Amino acid sequence: MHTPVWKRAAAGITALGLGMGGFLALPATAAEQDLTVLTFTDFHGRITNLDFFATLDQERAASGADKTAVLSVGDNVGASLFESSILKDQPTIDMLNAIGVDASVVGNHELDQGWSDLRDRIIPAAKFPYLSANISGVSPQVKPYTIIEKNGVRIGYIGATTADLPSLVSPAGIAGLTVSDPVAAVNKVADQLTDGDPSNGEADVLIAGYHEGYGDAITSGTSPKVSVILNGHTHETYANTANGRAVLEAGSYGAQLGEIKLSYDAVSHKTTVASAKNVAPTTDLSKTYTSTAFDAVKSISAKAVEQSAVEGAAQVATAAGPFSRGGMGLATPAEDRGDESTMSNLVANMFRDELTDATGKKVIGIQNPGGTRADLTAGTVTFKQAATILPFANTLMTTDLTGAQFKTMLEQQWQRDAAGLVPARPFLALSLSDNVHWTFDESRPEGDRVTSVTIDGKPLDPTATYTVGSGSFLIAGGDNFRVIAEGKNSKDSGWTDLDAWTAWLKKKTTITPDYAKLGVELSGLDTTKITKGTSVTFTVGGSIVTAPVANGTLDLTSVGFVKNSTVTASIGDVQVGKADVKDGRADLSITVPCTVEGTADVLTLKAADSGTTVTVPVTLTTGSCDQNQGGTDNGQGNNDQGGQNGQDGQNGNGDNGTPSGNAAADLARTGGPVALAAVGALALIGAGTLLVRRFR
Questions:
Q1: Which of 190, 252, 278, 430 could be a cystine partner for 256, CB 3.0 to 4.6 Å?
Q2: Which residues contact 589 (CB under 8 A, 6 or more apart)?
Q3: Using CA atoms, how far apart are residues 615 and 612, in angstroms rounded to an integer?
């Protein structure tokens, strides 16, 4: 580490003072102790990322192991690589032990399998403490803080877990636990560790680890006694030292290593932040680097890869094209939980098919975007790839919702946590099986944005009962879809998602990406009153955006998606309009002919390029068609009353009605010649009445 000029000067003054027989007192800077914090977050079992471990160990050696704390901000396990997940993440825990992690915050994924799994399996296997100050009911296994001594300095590391935890894991798995405000919990512990009372713990330097994303509530609300804030959960990368405090998040998957340089003055009890940055692991360092700790890590990784290889290589299906999780990916996968995607839609179809077969009911498949954890390229689909997509070992469940609850479920994509606050991800795009289509208008008030839903081509009935199927996490109301937990007749199949998923893939043999969008924005159309014979203009498809705003375009944005060029509108078999599509959006004018019968119908909008189909229940009114709808062969002749509006005459003199709608108007506009023709026609009507009646 480069020694600042002021430190070199201080050292010179110290030497001078000693040379003068101690007449000069030691300056305060001589009491300063240098410290380094190396940190990572959201590792998620990336046990093949050996360059990360090599870089961490190398950086620690350079800074001095006795001066360096290695801290995790949570989600070490869960949603892991196949090589780790197939072995219940034991290789990940073993590798973190071997590299020498000093402490970790409890992330939401540590609780994927419930509190009992964290308490009875993960924590006993870890050689470092797990921390969370804002979860009650977890003591003594989880502590609010730990004290780490480095270079003679007592570092207090305080942990806090995302307040969204109840919506991120199965509620049943954390029954009995209470999650409180993270900032308030951290501040309470910070006061405790600096109150001068050794009996309740004291620390020289305070570091807060929040398994929560960057936000003003954390950065401005955390006590000034805390010198370093480490964030996690959102997989973002940033580092700053604003206002003298380090605030850092080190991405995810070991793609970044956070490094913070500090100094602590034992005389003034002041902590100074010198720098904060994220460092990318050195490429291929793992091929040449060696140390006792790293060699142990490398051995654990190799053994896990070998153990998982045989089972993971088995083919379960063939992908005819790529599947991805949204993210505007014409070529490159990029996860976006605010986007409907080919990958999650495929999973929803699997839930529908497998649970329909298992229950004998018509099931609607639903999938939360965070439950789908990987993409697929075209070609062979292996067991390993399938397991990486659904790594949580949820069981398949069904529950019954009313139509009104089903609509509420779609409304809850615009997220609110249990306290009514907007979480870090404000919109989560729920994937549905392809027998469901829905529209929304985001300009409408929250809670009333869903404008139509059709299931199997029929309008949603608010009072009817619909069976939905998914993994146990979502059926329990996870990801803030709380209305699902209100469902009736909930049934657990006892079948894990991975078993069902791989069985379904094997039956399918080949899977083909479907680029048809199921949820589309529709604005400017009053579906309760479309007047026949009158032009109506509205917009289908929203602008192409990324989360947190709902992506309502006609174009699905997964890898390889098809850009639509036109959209056609129809009522039944009658085309009523057509428009060009640009960037997934079209301004469409439609006119429903007077000849379309009935008042209740379905407006179908189809973008042929991708197959995106919007089905909207509409109410048709006749309007001017009531006055101008004459029939083409009206009247009943022979003493009948003249027909009116195209209906047969009753007990009259046998005259005919007027032609229908626009035809009557066209005749009127032709003026004199038509009138003369009409006079001639009248002369023939009487003689032809019998003939007309005979050929009706």
A1: 278
A2: 535, 536, 537, 577, 579
A3: 10
**Sheet arrangement for strand 228-231:** 145-150, 153-161, 205-211, 228-231, 246-250, 237-240
The C-alpha R_g of the chain, in whole angstroms, comes to: 34
Q: Are 549 and 610 in contact (CB under 8 A)?
A: no
Residue 246: helix, strand or coil by DSSP?
strand
Which of 1.10.287, 1.10.238, 3.90.190, 2.60.40 is the CATH number of 519-625? 2.60.40
Per CATH, 31-305 and 315-511 having the same topology is answered: no
Greatest CA span in the chain, whole angstroms?
Answer: 142
CA distance 268 to 28: 8
| Burial degree of 685 (CB within 10 A; 0-12, 13-18, 19+) | middle
CATH of domain 315-511: 3.90.780.10
Are the C-beta atoms of residues 158 and 188 closer than 8 Å to each other?
Answer: no
Token code pair at residue 293: 């700790």
182 preceded by a cis bond (ω within 30 of 0): no
* pLDDT, position 208: 99
Hey, which of 293-302, 554-563, 629-638, 657-666 has the most confident mean pLDDT?
293-302
Report the percentage of the chain scoring pLDDT > 70: 83
pLDDT grade, residue 36 (50/70/90)?
very high
CA-CA distance, 296 to 40, in Å (whole number)? 20
Contacts of 673 (CB under 8 A, 6+ apart): none
Which residue type is seen at 94?
D
| Domain boundary assignment for the chain | 31-305, 315-511, 519-625, 632-694
- Helices 292-312 and 90-99: crossing angle, nearest 10°? 170
SS3 354: helix
* Beta pairing, strands 153-161 & 145-150: antiparallel
Q: What's residue 542's pLDDT?
A: 85
C-beta neighbour count of 237 within 10 angstroms: 15
- Through-space distance between the first and last CA atoms of the chain, rounded to whole angstroms: 102
* Token reading at 538: 């509205």
The string of DSSP codes covering 620-644 is: EE-GGGGTSB--SS----SSPPPPS
Q: Tell me which fold the domain 31-305 belongs to.
A: Purple Acid Phosphatase; chain A, domain 2 (3.60.21)
Q: What is the pLDDT of residue 550?
A: 72
Please give the full DSSP string across 494-558, using - where no structure is assigned: EEEHHHHHHHHHHHHSEE------SEEEEES--TT-EETTSEEEEEES-----TTS----SS--S
Distance (Å) of CA 347 to CA 68, 294, 405, 589, 658:
44, 38, 22, 36, 58
Distance, CA of 309 to CA of 498 (rounded, Å): 17
Question: Residue 27 above 50 pLDDT?
Answer: no
